[in-house]
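Homework help board

Subject: predicted structure for assignment chain

Our instructor gave us this sequence and asked us to write out the predicted structure in token form, then describe one feature. I got the tokens but I'm not sure how to describe them. Can anyone check?
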Amino acid sequence: MPPALESLRLSPLVNNMDESTTVAIFSKVSDMKSRGEKVNGALCVGQPDFPPPPEAMRATEDAVAKGMTSYTAVTGTLELRKAVCEYLDKYKKTKYAPDEILVTSGGKQAIYQVVLALCQQGDEVIVPAPYWTSYPDIVKLSGAAPVILETTAEQGYAIDADALAKAIKPSTRMVIVCNPSNPTGCAMSRNQLEALAAVLRKPENEHVFVLSDEIYERICFDGLEHFSFAALEGMRDRTLTINGFSKAFSMTGYRLGYLAAPKPIVQAASKLQSQITSCASSIGQHAGIAALQSDMGYIAGKVVELQEKRDLALDLLAKIPGVTCPKPAGAFYLFPDVSSYYGRTTPGGEDVGDSTSLCLHLLADYKVALVPGDAFGNDKCLRLSYAATKENIVDAITKLGSCLQGLQTSKKARTSTD
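My token output:
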């Protein structure tokens, strides 16, 4: 090995950053499958099990046929940015100009760039927990400090306005609102969002930006209508709206997202993007226009199917003694509390004391992959995605129940109660 690799010095940015747990679990599943093992990994990754809208697929073919394979402007094609503006005006009641839109290679890039553009050392960013795994590390990469704001299952994991008010300080630069939420599926109503906005409108809190991650905004259930944070009175110019095509449009591999924000912020984020990836895929952008301009009937039908799968998954979880789970109104995740089984051992004698050890046991012995809640800031829970076939949902949750009920009371636990 070359001497430079024997004493390899990595950047503190990398050393202080955790690998995405969802990516790590998915990679482990892929490795097991490559060895010929049969693994149910359908519930571990946040990816819909249905194809993109037909309009997007046809536009992809059209882009290839027409040779639309060149670079575009860093900010994205004018046609796509206009289509985003029209979509936000029509469905979200928020008005933007094309120069207030930045097209990115996925929603994650939009989050990363806008946080880097606005945050620095000495700043704090409020991150409600449970949180999407990447939020805290993205904040750390900017030099700012993530401040975790706990939410509760009893409140459906909605952000409490009073708790938010207490968490804001002069050093608070931003609060992240993921609505609907990954990993809990919590979809906050307009009234709940208005309560947060009332806190942020107070003169002492006017310095705080809101990063509103709305990537799941079309996936709401039980008649709930999603409301954009930027549409609330006085919030438009303080809101950094993140959206994209990976979830409701099921265009994960297209890597296409966008930021909608005031022009100076978009310009700053675009400057960063010019030195990172430049433009998003030209073919993907053409398909994105078609997706935004479709009649949304295809997606509405898929949302009905997802609600049925949610109800199926909840019914199956309810049959497992000691497992509790709020009924979410959005996204396609459940976040059940399985902590009543901690402190036990596997039949092989291994301790199960947290969500990670439980998920490893479930994967190794039952060939089912779920994501430990510790990755999302709540070690009591597991995250499962029901954007999968009903057969995979039944298989995974049935095996989860067998796994949990197959755990044995440890000797240590028995001794402590003797």
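Reply (TA_rk): Your tokens look well-formed. For the description, you could write something like this. Residues 297-318 form the longest helix (22 residues). That's the kind of observation they're looking for.
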